[in-house]
Amino acid sequence: MKNKLKYMALCLSLLIGVGACSEEEIAYSAGEENKEVILQLNCQLQTNQEVIVSRASTAENRLNDLHFYVFNAAGELTGYKKLVATESSPIPTPGPETVTVKAITGEAYIYALANLNSTIYYLDDADKNKLTGIDEADVAGSSLTRDEFLAIDFKRQYGNASHIISPNPTDGQFMMSGYLNGGKAVTITAGTNGAGVISESNVIRLYRILAKNTFTIEAGNGVTFTPSTYELHNVAVGGKLVNGTADATTADVESSYSGMAGKR
């Protein structure tokens, strides 16, 4: 009987110890969530590995404005950073460009966008304001959600039936987008001195969301030919600003697009 009581007392003490450890672990995990930290992110402009010859000029690869967005697991914006290039302070291209962004610990989705003022293709004014009209010091005041962010489109023509703005290919600003971890969630934990630690690489690879195609039409030997017009077919009407969020094979296209030779 005494031995049974000893065993029961031993088991009870073990259960109490396990329970105490579990409570400590739960309290520790809960304390790690939603803690404000400072992230260090790197941004690198990438070239498409499938393109053998790039015709993009230095100006067309330039970053004129660069934006970083951090969303939590619930899709709420928890971090934002904006960089704007000037003549005296350009944004390094192709990078990497290191920036610090406020965020909170826990599961997160991290994205970057660039050249949102491009007039080659356009963003709606309302969408552009959602993306750029964010107060870095009061990110919680923004109503932008991750679902809204991923749903934003760019358009080849902007406006309404009474006033349509056509694209300006001479603009030279190509919209770009990128994300961490292939667009999947990462985990942010608290490091030392208020720094945030990301579970994956902190390098965001930016890609141009539009391709540049250059056509050269010349007459062959002994042939006289003066082109006056041209016509392109299946020109994209628009697409998703963030790469990988929609099936491009189902995108809207114009059946044809006509232009004058010598003009772009």
UniProtKB/TrEMBL annotation:
Domain Major fimbrial subunit protein N-terminal, chain residue ranges per copy: 56-183
Keyword list, A-Z: Fimbrium, Signal
Subcellular location: Fimbrium
Alphabetized Gene3D superfamilies for the sequence: 2.60.40.2580
UniProt main location, coarse: other
Signal peptide annotation: 1-22
Family matches, as InterPro entries: FimA_N
Domain of life assignment: Bacteria
GO CC annotation terms, alphabetical: pilus
Family from the record: Belongs to the bacteroidetes fimbrillin superfamily. FimA/Mfa1 family.
Name the record gives this protein: Fimbrial protein
Native source species: Phocaeicola dorei
